[in-house]
């Protein structure tokens, strides 16, 4: 009967603080067939609905930064309370090669954690570069270490890892971590810089983009990436974040 | 059964198309880049998202979800308003014409007068056809009935639009009327060049665990494969009654569905929700499926199938 | 979530039911034995097949087929005519009352006057409620529009039936109108005790290989799970507008569907095509599924769920 | 895509005369999951639609007696011409025990042939009693023999087998063929007689009934067996031939 329902109801198992404003919501059961980089739409009746990356599929987990009304409502949920999920949606990451460089900005660390787990389960090497404004903003660094990833942090104020942008950490990591593919999720300026870096360095890249999502299923057009951005990173015009993405693929010629 | 060579071209109100498949309004028609992309994916023509006089943000999320029978949506007519739409339409038309693909501009408005203003306004962008969406719920007469809900209001809008543009016009109708053919006939009598049918079927999904409607607007429009029998019936009734061509749509997901629309009397076939189901490439795929069917069954062209199910 | 004890009983226009599930008219309601059987299978009430003034053979086969979204039918109102119907209704009522199950007698007619005759006629058999089917296509005004297609004709039939019987009456409405709530309101104002919504959604299936509509009548009525969103929307709109109870039906196949109908404001829930999908035992099965849901979610009775999705 | 269609189109492979008015229509491919005793609705666009027993599932085969407009239209079809099928529908026979007595009247032989093939494929013994008015009306006797069934015929005029009703042939057969179950398909009077016989002799019976079918899927009520017949053979009131049947089951207490 439940396949007749647009949404699946989940319950919060635990809600763990991950930094001063981000919580990891661990739900009561798995989401079938979810891949790292895919997302779900989370609905709170009478509140709203927004997209969130899948930070773990079994049990379904999301890392939510409380930055506005909807994310605050999610972070206020207590164990046992319900939320509604549709998905998994979109095109996720695809592990390529055996040495993986993951680059996260802000809650971009969330889908990368799921990806790192998958790579580690295959016995492959993972190095994670995390960027943030300061130490308080850093996300999931401990979680990555726990599953055997090398972690390099970069903060704008130098309060954790090296001072500067995450791109500096990437350059540094690559010196002794000859990655075959770079996987990135984070703010658009970071992705643009990394896309340029991959092109310059002939490194395969997978980038997870953000956009204003409405339908989430490739109909309404609201998540289209603008043409200048498409041109900058080599995407075809009219690229839809919810359906063609959120992950885009760059392969050096 | 001998394989025959198959001609999928068609002409609709003077507009020539390399195949009968039209991108439905509201699906991916929000930018020149997306319209161009759909054209490149094999559509015979594309329709822009319905535009009204003023910018509208639309409803808050959830605005569209899939369910077992297809999709239900209440986007809320998100659009940039007439002024911002014109350059987009010009841009889209130029890109599409470079591919040899016609552009249909969809308009809606809250009043009969505004429909006139919209028709005159988008005519400046010279689309190949103007589709007049009189079937969106939540705009219309004082009872919330859309203009397509009565012969009188449908006629009034058509008359006004006809007076304001020399471009060909298609009137888009809603299925939830007792006699859709009478409304189509009224539109024809007021000068419509084509009829588009059907818009979504008003519906509601309720999540029993939430005890709430799923869409923020509560009521929405059902689209996708489960509405096909409703659409076929509407297209058949209209085709039997009017002499102008019909763009038949509603639930067309594959080549057989498109063939059925033509057999019900449609000249062209709209495709909307199937883009969700089968991807943007669905246009080329459906065209290929139509080709296979027609070659296998010995139909040389669309005219040889058109309306055969209603004779 | 604590399990609570659940009360599934309800009352509709003075008629008490042990659960809210009503056999829809036209499904297995053709004989006293079948009505009795459905009662024994767990229905809270049963409705007889719509009966008109004269015997009708109905349409030739095919009259009903299943398709991916449910069923489509054009039985053609096969019925034995008023005279032969009365003893069947009396027989059925006696057998059903022995089980404690109310009988709803459904009537249709070609004219307003004949509706009056039918109402007076079946009243002789003393059913618990008369359902007035003003929503069958192919009977109605001179354009083929059913009586439920306009406020005026719906009101006229209701007024006539009200004048001819003292039994409670439910007016059964069609979904394909622009504003179903206005029609329900007109029926209430003319003395209806309840509204039944919805009848099937007019549709057509075409077999592309045959190039023909599948039903001999060409047009038929779509029923079954794919019309549920349409039915929920109609029931919600009616429930928001009228104060009389609503029998909500259309696509109810399981306990969650029935719960959604109640949440949309229905007092009772009709079940038709699900008999094909899940067998005659579907009534007891759906009642059990409702019970499970309500116990799990903490709803002690139907009143605690009724209309919560439209508030 | 084809699961969206209400009907499946088949083509006639061969149309073989089986007696003076009955033809066996062998179609171009199988009908999946069909059981002996089930039926299909055959549709000829602009002509009509009627129920027919499945005489063989692979390839789909029906034995059609040309008795009226629709069956004549079917019998007039030539190889390569199409017809439309929905089904399989209804409740078929179920083989019980290892010695099977099949009793057919008229085209009732058709579903029994399919049943016999199934039993023979299991290496079980089958005796078929066929009743008809005269030799010309006898159906499929040779076909049954070919698959290794014992065949006993009874004709009213004695032109083939013993003279009399099929019940006589049944009695005779049972003398040296101790069947565990009797399976019957044919005209109603024959079924009523056999049902009484089974009851009297405490023999398990399966009877395939005929009725006026309209929807074929248990909705319209037109195929209901009348109450006196139900009472006579122990069926519950309101028994539907298309859904509860066409096969009814009798088990001695
Ligand atoms: C594919 C995809 C995946 C996403 N995954 C996640 C995820 O895993 N975790 C998560 O927390 N969010 C994620 N988001 C963002 C999320 O959908 C919401 O946009 C976010 O929760 C803010 O919504 P809100 O209604 O709370 O605040 P809003 O009112 O929408 O925003 C409040 C303010 O915060 C700003 N803002 C929005 N998002 C962020 C942010 N992430 N960091 C800093 N400022 C922000 C807005 O620009 C605005 O000024 C994802 C978005 C997309 C498209
Ligand atoms: C479950 C089921 C299975 C069936 N299986 C078969 C089958 O395998 N083969 C088959 O040929 N028919 C079968 N029938 C009968 C078939 O559906 C039609 O009724 C038959 O073909 C006659 O239809 P018609 O339109 O040609 O003639 P009609 O106009 O309906 O009938 C013409 C005349 O023939 C009489 N008649 C109908 N059927 C027969 C008959 N079988 N023998 C003698 N007289 C008859 C009628 O009473 C009428 O007087 C089956 C029916 C049912 C309900
Ligand atoms: C998300 C979405 C948005 C839509 N927006 C519009 C619109 O703006 N104007 C319009 O005329 N129709 C709109 N429609 C209706 C479609 O054009 C089409 O009539 C309907 O979806 C039926 O076709 P389908 O089953 O192929 O989707 C929209 C449909 C969907 C699914
Ligand atoms: C085979 C069939 C026959 C029907 N006949 C009638 C009828 O005689 N009178 C009536 O009011 N409704 C009739 N209906 C409509 C049903 O009562 C019901 O309104 C509709 O099927 C929607 O419910 P469902 O989806 O549960 O089937 C019929 C429906 C079917 C499927
Ligand atoms: S969110 Fe609607 S197309 Fe992507
Ligand atoms: S033929 Fe309709 S119920 Fe059996």
Automatic annotation (TrEMBL), chains A, D:
Which GO terms of type biological process are on file?
pyrimidine nucleotide biosynthetic process
Q: Keywords in UniProt for this one? A: 2Fe-2S, Iron, Iron-sulfur, Metal-binding
In which residues is [2Fe-2S] cluster bound? 215, 220, 223, 242
InterPro entries recorded: Cyt_c3_hydrogenase_gsu, Dihydroorotate_DH_Fe-S-bd, FAD-bd_FR_type, FNR_nucleotide-bd, OxRdtase_FAD/NAD-bd, PyrK_electron_transfer, Riboflavin_synthase-like_b-brl
Q: Which cofactor does it need?
A: [2Fe-2S] cluster
Gene Ontology molecular-function annotations: 2 iron, 2 sulfur cluster binding; flavin adenine dinucleotide binding; metal ion binding; oxidoreductase activity
CC cofactor note: Binds 1 [2Fe-2S] cluster per subunit.
FAD-binding FR-type domain: residues covered: 5-95
Q: What is this protein called?
A: Dihydroorotate dehydrogenase electron transfer subunit
Native source species: Pelolinea submarina
Q: What is the lineage of its organism?
A: Bacteria, Bacillati, Chloroflexota, Anaerolineae, Anaerolineales
UniProtKB/TrEMBL annotation, chains B, C:
Where it mainly occurs, coarsely classed, is cytoplasm
Database matches in CDD domains? DHOD_1B_like (cd04740)
Cellular component, GO annotation:
cytoplasm
Enzyme Commission number: 1.3.-.-
Q: Which UniProt keywords apply?
A: Cytoplasm, Flavoprotein, FMN, Oxidoreductase, Pyrimidine biosynthesis
Where is the protein localized? Cytoplasm
Is this entry keyworded Flavoprotein?
Answer: yes
State the similarity comment: Belongs to the dihydroorotate dehydrogenase family. Type 1 subfamily.
This one is known as Dihydroorotate dehydrogenase
Species, as recorded: Pelolinea submarina
Name the gene behind this protein: pyrD
